[in-house]
Each structure stands twice: as C-alpha cells, then as structure tokens.
Amino acid sequence: MNLSAGYSAEARALWDVATALNRAAAAVSPRPAALPPLLFFTDPVRTPRPWETAKRLPAGAAVVFRAFGAPDAMETGRRLRDTTQAAGVKLLVGLDSDLARSVQADGLHLPERAATRAPAIRTAWPDALLTAAWHGAETPPVQGLDALVLSPVFPAGGASADKPALGVQGFTAQVRRAALPVYALGGVDTKTADRLTGSGACGLAGVGAVQSAFAEAVVRT
Asked: Going by C-beta distance under 8 Å and a sequence separation of 6 or more, which residues neighbour residue 110?
C-alpha cells in the first residue's frame, strides 16, 4: 500500500522500504506475507506519548508496547489498543502476557532471554502474533514464534548502544541461517533503510526513527 501525499517524505520512505522488503521476503516464503512490514517499538522515556505516533501509522503496521514496569502501563496499553484498532494497526505487548490479555492485544514480543516461553504461550494463545528479540546468538529461538527482531543492524541508541552493529553483511548472513522471518532493528532510519534491500529482512523496526518519520503524518478522521 502506498501512502497518501499527506505523509512526510520520511514516513513514505520508511514505509516504501518496509513493504518492499516484506514483498520480497514473501516471494521466497509465504510466512512474511501475514506479518506487519513495519514495527514501532515504544519506550517510556524515548516515546512518552506513543498513541500519537500509533494513530498516524499506516494500516497494516504494528506497535510493540514495551512498558518496562511503568506505573501507567495499563492506561497506556488501553489507549494504544483503542488507537491501533481505529487505525487498522496491530498491537503487541512486550513480555507481559497478563497486560496483553487485559488490553486485548494481538500478541506478544519477547526479549531474547524469554524466547523459550513461546511454545507455552502459543499453546495458551494459539492465534497470537509472537515475535522475539535476537542479537545474533549462535542458535536463534524458533519454536512457537512467528518472527525474530534482530539488532542492532546499524549503530543505535537506547539499549543497543553498547552492542556492536552487525552491518548489512552480518545481518544478511544471520537472516539466511534463521528459520523464521527476521525484522531489522537498530539504527534503521531513512538514511540506512535502503541498504537493507536484498538482505532478506521481512520488514523494518524502530523507535525514534519511526516516531520522527510519522510525527507529521496525516491524521485519520
């Protein structure tokens, strides 16, 4: 889906690359076709009002709500659920199954340390969209998951600031040995996204870059 002229050039660039990657990955395997091309990761500090970005995301994108124990997690989660449903955007909750169920999210995003919980979660929640973080460990998590989010691809801020960047070549090599669709996260913005063409990524993920790109996007009425 192409974005309307009301979106910023940055938003259009990110969405165009994300959807092109998803189409290319789906041409090789059918699994990516059912996945959102673009994931917006929230952070209580870096994205304090995530619903404002969520309402401007294109239909078919997804929000990954990471509360990190914030006291207003339930309130924010419910606000995000209302916003994403209206926008045709999926909502995943980071790690907290109880919170995800309470806000009627579409699924969960698991940190790498908790990826082994995926089979049990899949049994209890068969239709959930389940993703997990991956930082290039020798054996990537697979069981029960729909996709992996590999980071950092490029030099990044936040929690990935102290991790060495994989680079396009390293990221591509990891994608090829993964048994699941893989998203690119970490330093992915309008200046770097194009470099991932041909990498095998099923889509893009970001925090600040997505928030910035969609800050001036058209708002649905």
From this structure: 94, 95, 117, 118, 121, 130, 131, 132, 133, 145
